[in-house]
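Exercise (ungraded).
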Amino acid sequence: MTAPAAPRLFPGLSLAPGRPRARLLLAFLCALLVVVALLAVDKGAVEISVAQQFSIVAGKLGFRLPWHFTVEQEATLLNIRLPRVLTGLLVGAGLGASGAALQGLFRNPLADPGLVGVSSGAALAATATVVIGDALSLSLFKLPAIFQLFAFPAAAFAGALVTSLLVHRLATIAGQTVVATLLLAGVAVNALAQAVSGFVTFYATDAQIRSLTFWKLGSLGGASWISLGVLAPFILVPVVIFPRLARSLNAMLLGESEAGHLGVNVERVKKEIVVLVSLAVGASVAFTGLIGFVGLVVPHLLRLLVGPDHRKVLPGASLLGASLLVGADLVARTVAAPAELPIGVLTAIIGAPFFLWLLLRDRKWRVIH
Amino acid sequence: MIEARGLEVRAGGRALLEDVSLAVATGELVAVVGPNGAGKSTLRKALCGDVGVARGEVRMCGRALEDWPPVERARVRAVMQQDSSLTFPFTSLEVALMGRLPHLRGAEGVRDYEIARAALDAVEARHLEERLYPTLSGGERQRVHLARVLAQIWEHSEGRERYLLLDEPTSNLDLAHQHSTLAVARRFSREGVGVLVILHDLNLAAQYADRVIMMGGGRVVASGSPSEVLTREAILETFALPVIVTEHPQLGCPLVVPVSTSAVK
Amino acid sequence: MKWKLASRSLIAALCLLCLAGCRPAPDADKQRGVAVTDAGGQKVSVADSSRVVSVGTANTETVAALGAASRLVGVDNTSGEYVSEAKDLPKVGTRTALNAEGIISLRPTLVVVTSDVGPPQVIEQLKAGGVAVLTLPADYSVEAVKGKVRTIARTLGLDAKGEEVAASIDRDVEEVKRLLSRAQSKPKVMFVGRGPNMPNATTSGAGTTIDEMIRLAGGVNPFDDFQGFREMTDEAVVRAAPEVILMTEKSFERSGGVEGVLKFPGVALTPAGKNRRVVAVSDEYFQGFGPGVGRAVRGLALKLHPEIQD
């Protein structure tokens, strides 16, 4: 027997190996999601007891329950909190799964929509849409409402798509991803997006700027049922399709030509991933601004617990990402009530130390090259 | 039968392969030898469709390579490349299991696990089953990839022919493992798999191959049985290395022995 | 397998919730009470103005000037900084990053905001919560200030007091005009701003509160060819040739006094730089046009034209 297997987890903590563990974990993540979501709906700046919550929901479905509630409580629960929590679930799932998919695509655990510049590209496109549209007197606000709603996520999707393709082209040499180039490409794209964004806002009117700076901080505060309705397909489609690409992604981790020899249609898979990631990230940025680190932290945690098999990582990343974001948002809006902390700050507080820890740990196992 | 006819591959104005024709039939082990830059890897890439050919064509089982849908092709032909860049912490067993991908309908079944383990056994890497790939040595990694590739064509798929292309599978291996690897390759060829192996070591080619193809300067210089191809003159001409070719004391195949240059005019 | 089931049930739950939420919110405007027209031209009915959340320093100052500070239950961060009556009140965040639920938790009956608050959805969320929201335009002019004072006063049921405050603004402005009639110059005044997180100094163009104040105080803003704030450049500054440099006290200190200011792009080559004429005024002067605008303009006018002092 040669040296003992290197631990995937923190040394000292072991779980039974094999597939039962993964199933157990996914079930646990589902349960966690439900618990976090219920907690998030229950807690908030406005006090609403559980009984009242039931009353409110029952009331909307046509039943009367004996617990009274005020108009403010009803509006808060149904029009502010519920859409907000659901938006958080969707965006968290989208960002988590997109991070996992990007890491598979680039064959590198450091790829994250924010680091790699995809989020900035999306934000820039949405910014440009407002300002340029106004400049050309094509004010979006004059279009029928349905176009208005879809205009931002569509523009952000286009921005994310262009950026993903650009970064992929820059960072891939002879079919291999060169990590240093990947990260540099991300830095370059982020810098470019900042510069162009600065240029655009320079010429923007004050009113436009105010609606744009909101994006930079990231917030779930603007969530409404309508925005949720538009956001949902942009996120659910990728989240549901990603796990189907899991096996191909696993094979692609061996290398693009090796995956081809295993029968994977590599070009098609790459295109699908890029499009799906752009949809999810673009829509998230359009509706909730820039929220970083979720796409980096979540897949990593998953891989530590269940290994790098995408068949477990992809669905797990959606579940965990949703829980994480909703949990972080809960903290953001209760800790400093009645004000709220920017959610990007919270994800950074969790994500940045985690990132540092990853790099430290990697010096031992050399998993990140 | 994998056939190549009149292959020509160009890059940057240079011809990497020129007018190369060869065939690999089922049940035989063909070794491709040649000095660095002779075009061996390019030939492998052309045979796999990984590189575009300016002229000529490749056919597998009578069908042009482009006409094979990727999954069907993967059920019939497995390729092991020289270098692999896997950086994620899969276990060796998981890597070997990936070879079963083209055959899967849904999740892996019991049989797939059996095959993966048997493949690891065949390359003497079974004890590495639970080890994480990034923690393995170069030689261990190479054997795990070989196991994956063997697992891919372990069984007949719909009674079809099977092929195995190995590009320098022994480069990181110690002497014992070099031989066991080629022994496995030969065993597979005896079971009906058509095997093409690119080798640096002429003696390994001599010992294990049914046919040897010697390449030089992008062309096929010689093709035939080991004793026909591995002659003193051919080796001197192609490798610029003076050798003595004698007979292996036990196996009867050619034994190539380099001699010191100072002893030759 | 498990994943398909989980995702399908999640989608189903989502649809159910969407259906639950898709009914119109309670109609807040049906209540009786004061009717005012807000910035969007919409009519707003305010039945009860006993608990007020005010967002925007000018708005908070107005509420205080009307003697209704006791009705305030929450303000935005900046109001808390600049309006003494609001210092100890709960803070609802910054004007551009409000939290509707947080505001609702203070149980206000009226929320006063400017039209540029963010996120924009907050206003709708508050209305849906049954809270009356008065949206005021973000205009800068003395007339606009008086208009806002009157609107807020009307909403709070303090019409008479509102007229008083408006009248006092008028008096202050008249006083300034009287003083300025003695002014012997109309100096070119360049505003220089240096915020805590900004590496470079900026100056103000047209369309800002500062621009308006300079004009009211009997000065001229040489930078009238652009809107908003821009970074200073050597050439632009020298070409503008300002005679006075105007800063807030905090910026002045942060820049290192007169010596520091002289180091800004181009300043040393301007008449203001050569005469070392730097005027530092209290930060409150520029926090949006509120009821104290008259006094602020007077203070600025005196600093720009020391000769007009009574």
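Further reading is listed at the end of the chapter. For now, observe: Chains B and C do not touch (no CB pair under 8 Å). The first helix of chain B runs from residue 40 to 48.
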